[in-house]
Structures are given as C-alpha cells and as structure tokens.
Design goal:
heterotetramer, A alpha/beta (about 375), B alpha/beta (about 180), C alpha+beta (about 80), D alpha/beta (about 240), A: 7-stranded mixed sheet, 5-stranded mixed sheet, about 40% helix, B: about 180 residues, Pyruvate-ferredoxin Oxidoreductase, domain 3, 6-stranded mixed sheet, about 20% strand
Chain lengths: ~375, ~180, ~80, ~240
C-alpha cells in the first residue's frame, strides 16, 4: 500500500502563515493522507478547498461528495482499501456523518474526522462553538463505540495533533476526531512547518480489501447475527480495545496548577483564552491555574483528580451550556466545588470575561 | 509598542482588507512578532463590510478575537459607523476620507485622515487604497520597518501577480508620505 | 441422455424447474428433505437431453449437469 | 453440456426464500467473475436488504455498507485501488430510496464501477413494504389498497432516470424470470464488468426479479408477475451504451 501511505511531499522547515483549516490540510497530507472526501460547510470550507489543490500534487484523491453521508461512506471505502484518509465538516454536517462514523467504529477502520464546530442546534450560526462535545466524546451515532477525540488549542498543536491523529487511528484501528472550532479553523498564526514522523510503531494493515490474490477472501462487516452471541463477543472486544486506549492515551496540560487555589478547566480555544485570564489573575495576585485536556476521550481523569486534591475550587469554562462540566465532575468525583462559565453555542469568551468570573468567585 | 495591539482593517468587500491584513501580518511575522489574524465577512459575500483583524504582540496571544480594537483602519463609511463606537479608549483610527462622509465623533480617539482612494487613483489603480491607508498608519506609528512591509508585498504577489508589486510599493510609500507631510 | 444431478438438500421446493422443463421430466418429491422442504427430482434420467433450462431457472444452484463426452453441446436447449 | 456452480461462489445454500431471484442474480455475477478470471482482484459491496449476507456466498473480498451508501463506499475503494474490480449489489430500497443521492451522483461522476441493481418491486427483508419501484396498484403492507391511492406516486424508473446523465456509460434492464431472460441478463452483467476492466466508466444493470414471499404468491405466479406486470412498467432493454 505504499502509494497510499507514503508520507510527506509538502514543504517543511518553513515558517507558515495559514488559517487553521489550511494548516490541518497541510499536516494531513504531510502525514500521508491520500484520500479526502468532504462537503462544503462554513467555517471549514478551506479544508476541502485546500485539499482539492494539494491532493493532486501528491497523487492523492479529493472527492467533493454529494452529501456528508456520502463523504463519510467514501472514507469507509477508502479506509477499507488501505488509504490514510480523512473527512472534515462542521457541526450540522457531523450530525449527518454520525451513521457512517458508527459503522467505521464497529468495522474498526482507521480514519480522521475533523469537526470545526459552529453554533447549534439546528443551522445555528457560523461562529465558533464547543456544543458538539457530547456528540464527539459520548458517541453521536448508534451503539457502544468510542472515538479518540483530540482538542488542539493552537495552530502549532493543531499541526501536531493532525499528524498524530493518523497514527492513533492506524495504531488502534479506530476513527479519530479532531474537535476544533470555528476560531481555530479561521484564525491564522505563524507556525513552523514540521515534517511528519510517526509517533507509534504502526501495525500491518491486515484488514485491507484489495482483492484476495494469494490469500483467503476478507470481509468487513458490522452485522453480527450468528451465532446469537456474536455481537456481544464483538462488542466486548471493542470495549477491551477502548480500555487499552484509555489506559495508554491520556493527554493533558497543566498550567500553574501546583500552587493554584482556583483552577480553570477548559479545552481547545477556550483553554487558550482562559490562559490569558490566568495571566491576568496572577498579575492581580490570585493563585489561579489551568488544566486543559488535550484528549477529550480518553478523558484524563487522574490528572483532574490530582488537581482536585490540591486546589480549592474549579472553574469550568466552555463554549457550550454545560457539557464538558459533566466529565469534569465525573473525573473529580465531585470532591471539589465546580463553578461554571458557559457560553451557549456560537459565541466565545474573552480573557476579560473569564477574569471577571475569577474575581467574583476567588474568595467566595 | 504596547504589549498587545488589537487592530482591525475594515471596508467594503473588494477594497482589499484581507490582502492588507495579510501583508501586515506577514511583515510582523518577519520581524519576529507574535500575531494572530482572522477575517470576517458580512453575511453577504460582496458589498457588505468585510474586516480583517490582527492581534500583534511581543508575547503570546491568548485570543485572536478583536472586540475592542486599539487601532482601526476604516476604508468606508459603514466601517466607520461600525467600529468607531467599538474602539478601545484612546485608540487610533485611520480613516479614508475619500470614502467617509463625516468626522470622527469620539473625542478620545486619535485620528489620522488620508484620502487613500484619491491617492490610489492618482497612482493609477484605485484598488491600492488599502495599501495607502496601511502606509499612513505605519508612517504615523512606525511599529514596523518599511522594508518588512515591502518584503511582505513582494512575497505575497511574486508568484501570482508580480505586476502588482510596484504599484503596491508606491502606494505604501505614498501613504507614509502623507504622514510625513501632515 | 444427460448426466443431470439434483442436490435435494439445496432445493427449497420453489418448483420453477418443474414449470420450465420442456419435457415435463421434473417432479416434486412426496417426502421432505432435511430442511423440511419438498424437493425437485428428475422423473426419467434417460429422457433428459441436458438443455439446462432448469439449471438456469433454479435460484438455488441445486441442479448441475456433469460433462458427458457422448453428449454434444446444445446451447439453446429447447427442442421439442 | 456442462452446468456447474461458479467457483467464485462458496458452496453453501443461501438464506433466500424459495423462488427468490437473488440466487439467480448472484449465480450470474459469480459466473461472470469466473469467466473474466477476476475473483482475486474483485471487491464487492453488500447492501442492507435481503442481500446483506452476500459475503457468506461470494468467495472474494466484500465490504458490508450502511443502507444505500454502497456507491459512496465503492467510490472510496475504487479511487484508492483503481486497478481492482469493484461492484455494488443493491436492492430497490437501497439503491432507489435511501440511497438515491449516492446512486445519481456515482453515476454522474462516471465512477468506473459496476452496479447490479436487483429490482423486485418490494421491501423484502423488512417484510413486504412499498419500494420505490412498487408498481401502481400493487398491494404491499404499506399500500394496502394498492400503490397510487395515497400519493405514493408512480414507480421510480432507475434506468430511464440515469439515462439522462452524461457521466453514464452503460445501462441495461434485464430480468431473471425466464431462461431466455436469464441468459440475456448474464450477457449484460458480463458487459458491465468488462466495461470496468476496459476503463469505460459507469455501468449499471437493473435486474427485474421475483419475491414470491412478500408478493404473497407462488413461485410460478411470481414469475408470471415479472413477465406480465413488471415488464410492462419496466421495459427491458439497453438504455445507454456509450462506446
């Protein structure tokens, strides 16, 4: 499968000024992504646009699908055929892809799915949002499955996590979601273009359907009717895999949490904005820190438990109305008071907003 | 330069606010400054107000969002109406007097006036009014070296539209001249 | 004479072969096979000319004709 | 003459009901794969519907797809592996109802794949509800008074619909209700696969087929229904054959 997994061929070592969406495309292609199918939706339109420009240059395939549903199913096929592949969309489009994501998860096919979240429910708006948290980490499609969910907070990290996402997908044979938002997708900041290096020792793709020459015919399926317990057996094996992933892949960043009395919990762009508020609070003499999960699933529970043992209070900030906070409370087993600053979909906090909230609750 | 400068360039779609923002961002990048950039359009793709926002800083930047700009470069009347009231106290506003119909009303703002579209017209291409205004801003603040700006212009146009490098260079210098002479 | 073979365990008893045989040489059994179905069987092996219309029509691939060196190929089948 | 089961099919009985046409269609596809010698480079897609267990019968690589999405999945496979032979096998609900968009667009893109479309005018697996191809007046569990009484519209004619698309190379409607039709159907299926091998583009063969169980008739009456009723509504023939 060398034609489809050979990495590289984008310029590395240069300082880039690209929008997040464009950078994600560059990183994906650098990591060997050779098949992309997608459908336009704001604020992720630069992804298919840039893919359509870059893919032909590396001998890859870009398909503008007739629908999000078709796009995710093209990914299902391309992954089964052995390609490193990716699709992207924004919230309403991800809802449409849920069916296919469930099938891909059950069939244990590797792929990368980016959600550049916008406001919802419904058509919502086209600004940034984090309101698809539940959908991403709890499974928006049917059945017991898990996505590995990565939440970058800067373009530099977006570049790294996009590349790593392909490795996680191949290593665990599981779909990986990059949970970005409209802010991250639309902003530009300087990034050093780095070359792709695999971070894991990747297994042989012994599931690929490429014709049964010299081997037994293979089947990729998600229907388990016979024997009666076939589905249970399959699902238990999946759960075991999820347990392995949960024990091996928890990424989290702590910022000044060692002496912090108040720790902000936030992820993605919200965490970055909150970091500005941490700086402001420290300058005002308040001991405030930040804990930021980088993997939303698996959720870095132990890291949160640790903070719950040292801080007096947590403040959850999210661009949604109370989704992420549930995982924070679960992870800390309600051992610590949790305050909340949420923004209903489609609007973002500023460092000043968060600082104001910190000031209001710090001594209470 | 202050620790962090939040800047907006606003005008009609088609007045080149995105290009101006891009050039400014690249020049900052060349000088090793931290920057973030965003572009937003009105709901309609053409004819509404488009704006390009840039945060420039010597340290890391928490948020790329510019809610209260320290600097606004406004190229038309709707943008003046929209951003004057939103500006941070004592901010700097550069207005294109060729396309605005009134004076700046807020007393706390520092105002730079430049008839950018007329100057661009005299140079032979009204579409470089954006760069004239940018030149006026830089001629006043000197936050960047002219050579960084010219380098950014060359980098941006050299591949696809090399013919536009010269006129953009001229526009930049003409804008800066207005400030020297003011 | 053709070397026709009915796999009675594959047969589901749809009877399409019976209707199709130009010689009326196929009948359904009076007893059931292992799957509980009546099954098709040839009445007189000697009377089968190997036209294979029954094979064509059988949805279950339950009828096969083995090569018989003496038999010359009869592509179109039906000859009455 | 000799008549044997094709070797690209596994030697197992199928789960289809007595008199169901799927067994015939699958045999034809198997024979064609044998004759073209492409078993080891063929990847098939299984639909949702009665043919979902296709992989239990074909001895080649098969991927099972969600309802109606086979053409999209096949697109993904074919674009990654353009030198393999990719076919979808779909029923009328899969291809002409829930998967209409995928069908039209895979055809319009002119994907170099082969579609075998089995039209039996009813939803088989779920127990006999109206299909997009159920004919006017036909009674089903969801059109108890016959199709057309309740704004169901007339049956959808897939070949006629796709014939207007410039991206399409080959369209033919055949039947498996008589030995003569079956032999013609085989030729069409073979051509549809050969077109793909020759990189000619998108080919679809619509096969009118019997569903005695859900039509609630005998196997022989089902054959009569195809011959007398369905062929009237869905005329057999070549609808497009671009050289």
């Amino acid at each position: 499968m060398s034609a489809t997994t050979a990495p590289g061929h984008t310029e590395t070592g240069k300082k880039l000024l690209l929008k997040g969406n464009e950078l994600m495309v560059r990183a994906a292609i650098e990591a060997g992504c050779r098949f992309f199918a997608g459908y336009p939706i704001t604020p992720q339109n630069e992804v298919p646009e840039y893919m359509s420009q870059l893919m032909p240059k590396v001998g890859g395939t870009f398909v503008q699908a007739e629908s999000e549903i078709a796009a995710i199913n093209m990914i299902f096929g391309a992954s089964a055929a052995g390609a490193r592949c990716m699709t992207s969309s924004s919230s309403p489009g991800i809802s449409l892809k849920q069916e296919g994501i469930s099938y891909i998860a059950s069939a244990e096919l590797p792929c990368v799915i980016a959600n550049v979240q916008r406001g919802g429910p419904g058509l919502g708006n086209i600004r940034a949002s984090q309101a698809d948290y539940f959908q991403a980490v709890k499974g928006g499609g049917h059945g017991d499955y898990r996505l590995i969910v990565l939440a970058p907070a800067s373009l530099d990290e977006l570049q790294d996590l996009t590349m790593n996402a392909f490795d996680y997908a191949d290593y665990y044979r599981n779909p990986v979601m990059i949970l970005a938002d409209g802010l991250l997708g639309q902003m530009a900041e300087p990034v050093d273009a780095r070359p792709y290096e695999p971070i894991l020792e990747l297994p042989e793709k012994d599931f690929v359907l490429d014709g049964c020459k010299g081997r037994e015919a293979r089947v990729i399926k998600t229907l388990f009717l016979r024997p009666p317990k076939a589905l249970v057996t399959h699902n238990m094996r999946l759960q075991k895999k999820y347990e392995t992933i949960a024990s091996e892949l928890q990424l989290c960043e702590n910022v000044q949490t060692d002496d912090a009395e108040l720790v902000i919990a936030a992820y993605g762009m919200t965490a970055r904005i909150a970091k500005g508020a941490v700086d402001m609070a420290r300058q005002a003499g308040m001991k405030v820190g930040l804990i930021r999960p980088i993997t939303l699933w698996p959720f870095p529970g132990p890291a949160f438990m640790e903070v719950a043992g040292t801080a007096k209070k947590l403040l959850v900030v999210e661009m949604s109305s109370g989704q992420f906070i549930e995982d924070v409370k679960l992870a800390t087993e309600c051992n610590i008071p949790v305050e909340f600053l949420g923004m209903g979909g489609g609007w973002y906090p500023t460092p000043e907003n968060i600082f104001e909230k910190i000031s209001a609750i710090y001594d209470k | 330069m202050t620790k962090e400068m939040k800047l907006v360039i606003a005008g009609f779609g088609g007045q080149g606010v995105v290009v101006a923002g891009n050039i400014l961002a690249r020049a900052c990048m060349a000088e090793g400054k931290n920057i973030t950039g965003m572009v937003s359009y009105g709901a309609e793709m053409r004819g509404g107000t488009a704006n390009s926002t840039i945060v420039i800083s010597d340290t890391w930047i928490a948020s790329p969002i510019v809610e209260k700009p320290d600097v606004a470069i406004v190229l038309n009347q709707p943008s003046l109406d929209k951003f004057e009231e939103r500006m941070a106290p004592k901010g700097l506003i550069v207005i294109n007097t060729s396309m605005t119909e009134r004076e700046v009303e807020r007393a706390d703002l520092e105002v730079i006036k430049v008839n950018a579209t007329e100057i661009a017209h005299q140079l032979g291409n009204v579409r470089v009014a954006n760069i004239v205004a940018l030149g006026a801003f830089l001629g006043h603040t000197h936050i960047l070296e002219m050579s960084s700006m010219i380098g950014a212009i060359e980098a941006l146009f050299s591949q696809k539209k090399p013919g536009l490098i010269e006129i953009n260079d001229k526009a930049l210098r003409a804008g800066a001249e207005v400030m020297v002479n003011a | 004479m053709a070397n026709i073979k009915f796999d009675k365990e594959r047969c589901k008893g749809c009877c399409l072969c019976v209707a199709e045989c130009p010689r009326g040489n196929i009948r359904m059994s009076e007893i059931l096979n292992k799957t509980g179905s009546i099954y098709a069987e040839v009445i007189d092996e000697g009377d089968c000319n190997g036209c294979a219309l029954c094979c064509q029509m059988c949805p279950d691939m339950a009828i096969e004709i083995e090569e018989d060196e003496k038999q010359t190929c009869c592509e179109k089948g039906s000859e009455k | 003459m000799e008549f044997k089961k094709p070797t690209s099919l596994l030697d197992v009985p199928t789960h289809y009901c007595p008199g169901c046409g799927h067994g015939i269609v699958q045999r034809l596809v198997g024979e064609v794969i044998d004759e073209l010698g492409i078993r080891e480079k063929t990847i098939g897609t299984a639909p949702v519907g009665c043919a979902v267990l296709l992989y239990d019968y074909f001895d080649c690589d098969i991927i099972e797809c969600s309802h109606g999405r086979s053409p999209a999945v096949a697109t993904g496979i074919k674009r990654v592996l353009p030198d393999r032979v990719v076919f979808t096998y779909q029923g009328d609900g899969d291809l002409a109802a829930i998967g209409t968009a995928e069908t039209i667009h895979v055809a319009n893109r002119g994907e170099n794949i082969t579609i075998i479309f089995v039209n039996n005018a009813i939803y088989g697996m779920t127990g006999g509800q109206m299909a997009p191809t159920t004919i006017t007046g036909q009674r089903t569990t969801t059109t108890q008074e016959g199709r057309g009484q309740n704004q169901e519209g007339p049956p959808l004619k897939v070949c006629e619909l796709l014939a207007s698309l410039d991206g399409v190379t080959y369209l033919e409607r055949v039947a498996v209700s008589t030995p003569k039709d079956i032999m013609r159907a085989k030729k069409a299926v073979k051509k549809a696969f050969q077109n793909q091998i020759d990189e000619k583009g998108f080919s679809l063969v619509e096969v009118l087929s019997m569903c005695p169980t859900d039509w609630k008739v005998s196997s022989t009456a089902a054959v009569d229904f195809v011959n007398n009723e369905m062929k009237e509504v869905f005329p057999l023939g070549v609808f497009k054959d671009e050289k």
